[in-house]
Amino acid sequence: MGKYFRATLNKRSGKKNYYAFVTVPKNLRPLLKGQRQIYKSTQTNDYEEARDKLRDLEAELYLKVDHAELANHPLSKAYDALWEGLDGLGFWQETCDSNKQKALIEKWAKENPFSYMMLFENEQRWELYDEIRSMAGYVMATPSPGMSDPAESIALATVQGEIEPLLQDFDLEFRKVSEVKYAPKKRSKPFSDAAKAWFDSSLFQNNKKTNVPKREKTKQEQITKVQNFMDWAGNVSLDDFKKSLATQFAEELSSVDSSIISGGAANETIHKYFTAVRSVLDWAVRMDYIHTNPWAGFNLGGYGRASQKYRDFTENELRQLFTMDMPKQDRLVLAILACTGARLDEVALLKWDQVLEDNTKDNKPLHWLSTTQAIVKNEASKRQVPIVPQVCKLIQAHRVYANSKEPERLFSYGKDKDGKAENKASRAIMPHIRKISLDGTLTIHSLRHTFNTMCRNAGVDWELREFIQGRGGQGEGAKYGRPAWVEKQLEEIGKIDYSFLDGNLSISSPTEQMSSPLSRPP
Question: 368 — phi, psi (to 5°)?
Answer without folding.
Answer: -160, 165
